[in-house]
Amino acid sequence: MSGLGAIYRKELADHFSSYRFVILFALIAMVSFITTYMAGISLRENIEGQRPGFIFLMLYSTPGALFSMAQFIGFFGPLIGIVLGFDAINRERVQGTLIKVISQPIYRDAVINGKFFAGVTLISIMVVSIVLVISGFGLTILGVVPGVEEILRLIIFVIISIFYISFWMGLAILFSIIFRSIATSALASVALWIFLSFFVSLGANVIADTISPVDRKERTTAQALIRNVRIKEGISLFSPMVIYSKTTSIIIDPFRSTPKSLVLMGQFERLSASRFKNPLSISQSILVVLPYIIVLISITLICFGISYSIFMLQEIRM
What we know:
75% helix; mainly alpha; 13 helices
């Protein structure tokens, strides 16, 4: 593919030399370190004299002041993708450089592919760096060396996080192709992030209470309660943040055996959860959340595929 390497290197250089990237990375790293430090101090105080299993993974699942590391990536990880992609194409149009690049012996698809792969590389570097530094904090604060399974779970957690953030970057690139204005594409990306991450869950509660109301003062049947919870969880799955949270909660916490709420657990699931407290193996945890992992990967590829198709068919002019 002619020109892919040149576009890829140029985009990486632009990102690394951008003050926007440096400020964003410094802010996210600072909040991550503070959150993890507070979680580590809390863990060290609570487990004094004990050695519970998979304590190293608790650094990522234990809330600090407000949220855990996994929750932090779920809430604010999309901002990384949006910042990397909201002006990927329309900035080139406004500056008049896109038509100059296309006029060179560079294929059009090399432009969109190079920008996307450079963004994914940058996201991977950011996530891996933060996880490695947090792991170093864990070794210092807790004095516990992670086992092989804990390391494998962290690797899977990193891969899932990269796909999750890459989905939002692909979405931002799509808006940068559709809208000529940089401000419009940024506003559309942020608005969709707010809607999918926050208002979908609120809407799920309203719709569930409307279809199958649950009255706390009066006695509600078990069927109505189960139907209410099923509607809430079904609608909330339209949010990528919910899918990511359910996936990482199982991967990071081996003692969780299902992403379902207690109400939706069947009789045998509740019996197993109450009698058997042994952690799941890593293969069992992957099988539990495999549908969610497939969905995250699929929406990322679909979003990029739509961006690719529109960009290839779009007329490029000054």
